[in-house]
Specification:
By secondary structure, this protein is α+β, with helices and mostly antiparallel strands. The protein is built from 20 helices and 29 strands. Keywords: Molybdenum, Oxidoreductase.
């Protein structure tokens, strides 16, 4: 029998190609010189955070040699009427009372530094950039609103028709939380802050378009997490039928959420230019453009009131927070909704109230970044748990255990509405068992002795932990197509894009298992609308749950047809057949028995009434086979070919969970923070490939370290981003990431999908800031003032300053 691949650490099939420099990214598309060589686009971006556009003068550009087009907003309607309308609001919500989106090119006003104002298309990027510099724009500069506090004060408005800069306010309540807090034996209040940050993929945004006038078809290559979403948007905005647009996603050098926006202005402007000019057009974002014109995340200010009993059980939790969503809201309220619902983590407060306001500022738009609101929520909840433990003088793990949802309480209904509009119901988990695994992995019970030993040497060490639950596998659907070719090879098409998660490996594992074929005989193609025109996208830790389930179901359909055809050819009962290494055979028959087996390639030939004799074994000596004269060549409930296609649509999200712990050392003189040990226990249900899951955790932890200790977007009061380069924006190098992250798995299969799987993509980043805050605070207990960590990220200079401030004055 073929060894089952589910749960095995199969080596990634993608890696050799990438390691050998054979990756093919968007900027590698259409690079051949010639008369039909690709043209290049460059964008003039606003230098001001808030200003009215009085006049744009492009006259100096028109006669520049090598320039083919220069467009401002005024040109768009003549090229395509729909282009003159704002970009789509992708995820509306009833609470989003004042949703606003930008135009492909700014109309009348700019609202953040980096907003697109004009487009130039030229022979190469050098000419295009030079031409952009010749455009003269007369701006009437307006006051900028920067940061949550300025947005709340509302002395100035980002949009004149949005009172108080408030795009939305949403409240969810379970019980009477304020009353429960007031009546509790003990009460605490916390004020917390998470700074704005951003993802920095290896590859920025990029788009290439080619229009074929002979067929009236558009081909678009773009570095996106949602090829089907881009396709739909481009078709609408350019006035094309959906069938006229093909979107292909080549290799993507990282997504992390920034590439889920669809469309970006350039994804519309580039194909518009290609059609108008009759030449292929390419746009490749540079690094500064990524800083000032893509998307940021994280920024929140939080206020927590909690009431609890002598054991640390939360009786009432009342949370209010203010979310900075930047100048526009293309992605609606997804990030703050996730914060508000995932804040609860693995706990069951007696009563819960959460209210948030989503506020406009004159800064770059905010869309999901790996974690997508969960790191903020986890920071609020875990800092609260630490504060309760500190107040009661209890061990931090003991307080958490007192509040856990218990294994026999699943499914657990929080009586709230999740990001997908479905009930917030946890499907499975075992949080007490996970905590015990984590304590053993990090050496929690042995740590006090180690801490005392280090203190005797004059060293300050501390330990912290963070617990989280992550909603994964949100709908509405994903599909897959499995095709067994006459060679016996299996081609799999999924609509999801891939940007490093190992999709070509894990989905091949699923197909190989279900179809009984060799792993190396399965090829997976992702993100090509020509192969799978209906899909949603790669985000929210949904690929394995959604596409994995669809792939499994499609392979199952293909297998059913294989067995049906093979049973007829072998004159055997389907139940007596097996598929091993791509050969269908009668169970128990000798391997060399005549007429007892048939390979998948031959079954594929037999699946089509229009047959060709590829070899003697095909038994298809003529081109056309009449078959049984009493039956049609293709049955009414069948179709030619050996294929399986299916879609998976879940009732609701499935909930992964995990716990992290970290041991740090803080230098008594310099306040530098060093990681001594990092440990993770994670539950993503049934594990398809543990090596890939661990790789996802490693990457997430690295990003979490960045968000905890280094990365922030530093704006001045006029809305200028002060650190828009890798010279100034700090990220962890390999030297700052722990060499060996201790990882353990707990598997509580989900009952919601056929494989029992949950997502894992964002797990590593969610609790990292909370764990670091607890560890640093624990280390600083040896100092005179005992720093209270209420804001992240924290730098050595900030920690040093906290040491100089009495704790009662710290906010």
């Amino acid at each position: 029998m073929t060894t089952k691949l589910m749960g095995q650490p199969v080596q990634r099939v993608e890696d050799q190609r990438f390691l050998r420099g054979q990756g093919r990214y968007t900027d590698d598309v259409l690079t051949t010189p010639g008369d039909d060589a690709v043209l290049h686009a460059a964008v003039l971006r606003s230098p001001h955070a808030h200003a009215r556009i009085v006049d744009i003068d492009v006259s100096e550009v028109l006669d520049v040699e090598g320039v083919h087009a220069v467009w401002t907003y005024e040109d768009l309607e003549g090229l395509s009427p729909a282009m003159a309308a704002p970009l789509p609001l992708l995820i509306p919500h009833p609470a989003l009372s004042h949703g606003r989106t930008q135009y492909a090119l700014a109309k009348d006003e700019v609202n953040y530094v980096g907003e697109a104002v004009a487009l130039v298309v030229a022979d190469d990027r050098y000419v295009a950039e030079d031409a952009v510099g010749l455009i003269r724009v007369d701006y009437d500069i307006l006051p900028a609103v920067v940061g949550v506090e300025a947005a709340r004060e509302a002395r100035h408005l980002v949009h004149d028709d949005v009172p108080g800069n408030r795009g939305a306010r949403l409240v969810q309540e379970v019980g009477d939380a304020p009353a429960a807090v007031a009546a509790a034996p003990h009460r605490l209040e916390l004020d917390l802050t998470i700074e704005r940050s951003a993802c920095m993929p290896l590859e920025g945004r990029g788009t290439v378009a080619r229009w074929d006038p002979d067929t009236d078809r558009l081909q678009l290559w773009t570095s996106t997490q949602s090829s089907t979403g881009v396709r739909a948007a481009v078709a609408v905005k350019l006035g094309l039928a959906l069938g006229q647009v093909d979107v292909i996603t080549p290799d993507v050098g990282g997504g992390f959420g920034v590439k889920i926006v669809h469309p970006w202005p350039e994804e519309l402007l580039v194909p518009l230019a290609a059609r108008a000019l009759g030449r292929p057009v390419k746009f490749t974002e540079d690094r500064r453009e990524h800083f000032i014109s893509s998307a940021h995340e994280r920024g929140q200010v939080q206020h927590v009131e909690v009431g609890f009993d002598d054991e640390g059980r939360v009786l009432g939790l009342d949370v209010e927070f203010w979310h900075d969503h930047g100048a526009y809201t293309p992605y609606g309220l997804i990030v703050p909704i996730i914060t508000s619902t995932q804040l609860l983590g693995p706990y069951k407060p007696g009563a819960y109230r959460v209210a948030f306001e989503s506020l406009y500022t004159n800064t770059v738009i905010v869309t999901p970044y790996r974690g997508a609101g969960r790191p903020q929520g986890c920071f609020a909840m875990e800092r609260t748990m630490d504060a309760i433990a500190d107040y009661l003088g209890k061990d931090r793990t003991e307080v958490r255990a007192a509040n856990f949802i218990q294994p026999d309480e699943f499914p657990y209904d929080h009586q709230m509405v999740f990001q997908d509009g479905r009930p917030l119901v946890y499907d499975s988990g075992d949080y007490p068992a996970m905590l015990e695994k984590l304590k053993a992995l990090v050496g929690w019970d042995e740590f006090p002795a180690f801490q005392a030993e280090m203190a005797a040497e004059g060293r300050q060490v501390g330990i912290g932990l963070g617990c989280y639950v992550e909603g994964t596998g949100v709908g509405p659907y994903e599909g897959a197509h499995v095709h067994v070719e006459t060679s016996g090879k299996v081609k799999v098409a999924i609509g999801l894009t891939t940007q490093g998660q190992g999709h070509q490996t894990v989905f091949a594992q699923l197909v190989a298992d279900e179809l009984g074929v060799k792993f190396e005989d399965v090829e997976v193609v992702a993100g090509d609308t020509r192969r799978m025109p209906y899909a949603v996208g790669t985000f929210a830790s949904r690929a394995a749950v959604m596409s994995g389930s669809a792939v499994h179901l499609a392979a199952k359909r293909a297998k059913e047809k294989v067995l049906r055809i093979a049973a007829d050819a072998l004159e055997a009962d389907e139940a007596d057949l097996q598929i091993v290494d791509g050969v269908v055979s009668v169970k128990g028959a000798p391997p060399d028995a005549v007429g007892a087996s048939i390979d998948l390639g031959t079954v594929s030939v037999l699946s089509n009434p229009l047959r060709y004799a590829f070899d003697e074994a095909s038994k298809a000596a003529t081109q056309f086979s009449v078959g049984d004269p009493g039956k049609p060549p293709v049955a009414e409930d069948d179709e030619p070919g050996l294929e399986g296609k299916d879609f998976y649509s879940p009732d609701r999200a499935t909930f992964a969970s995990g716990m992290h712990a970290v041991i740090v050392e803080t230098d008594p003189q310099t306040a530098e923070i060093t990681i001594l040990k990092y440990a993770v226990v994670h539950d993503c249900g049934t594990v398809i490939n543990p090596m890939i899951v661990e790789g996802q955790i490693h990457g997430g932890v690295a990003q979490g370290i960045g968000g905890s200790l280094y990365e922030r977007m530093a704006y001045d009061s006029s809305g200028q981003l002060l650190n828009a380069s890798f010279m100034d924006f700090l990220m962890p190098y390999v030297t700052e990431v722990p060499d060996g992250i201790a990882i353990d798995h707990l598997e509580t299969p989900s009952p919601l999908n056929p494989l029992g799987i949950k997502g894992a993509g964002e797990a590593g980043v969610i609790p990292t800031a909370a764990a670091f805050a607890g560890a640093i605070e624990d280390a600083e207990r040896r100092t005179r003032t005992e720093a209270s960590i209420t804001a992240m990220p924290i730098s050595p200079s900030e920690l040093y300053a906290l040491r100089q401030t009495p704790r009662q004055e710290q906010s």
